[in-house]
Amino acid sequence: MAAAKIKKGDQVVVLSGKDKGRTGAVLQVMPKDGKVLVEGVNVATRHRKPTQQNPQGGIERNPAPMAISKVAVAVDGKPTRVRFEEKDGKKVRVAVKTGETIDG
After folding, report:
1. Distance, CA of 73 to chain centre
2. Which of the residues 5, 22, 57, 94 has an alpha carbon 20 to 30 A from that of 100?
3. Which strand (E) or helix (H) includes residue 53?
4. What separation in angstroms does the CA of 52 have from each of 1, 45, 57?
5. Dihedral-angle region of residue 49 (phi above 0 means left; psi in -120 to 50 means alpha; beta otherwise)
6. Could you please report the per-residue DSSP string of 8-43?
7. What is the model's pTM?
8. Is residue 57 helix, strand or coil?
9. Cβ(11)–Cβ(23) under 8 Å?
10. pLDDT of 31-74, one tens digit each?
């Protein structure tokens, strides 16, 4: 399995689709499905009937998973690819455009 280029907590930019250009933090990564959950992006709306747990009912808005290929790590608000390098004996993620380390 390849190392994760996008991790939970990363700021990402959406590259394609209805939310193109929007940024948000990664809430969850699903590597087996090749999907990510991004805060405030690809929001799905559900109309819920009142239940005992939720007597009010109403409209629920939750982010839906989207393809990991549609997002890129954001450095200074701009998308960049990620590569791996050895620094002090540790494998770190590096932004290709700027050369700065993303974590650590």
Report:
1. 8
2. 22
3. none
4. 44, 21, 9
5. beta
6. TT-EEEE-SSTTTT-EEEEEEEETTTTEEEETTSSE
7. 0.82
8. coil
9. yes
10. 999 999 999 999 999 999 999 999 999 999 999 999 999 999 99
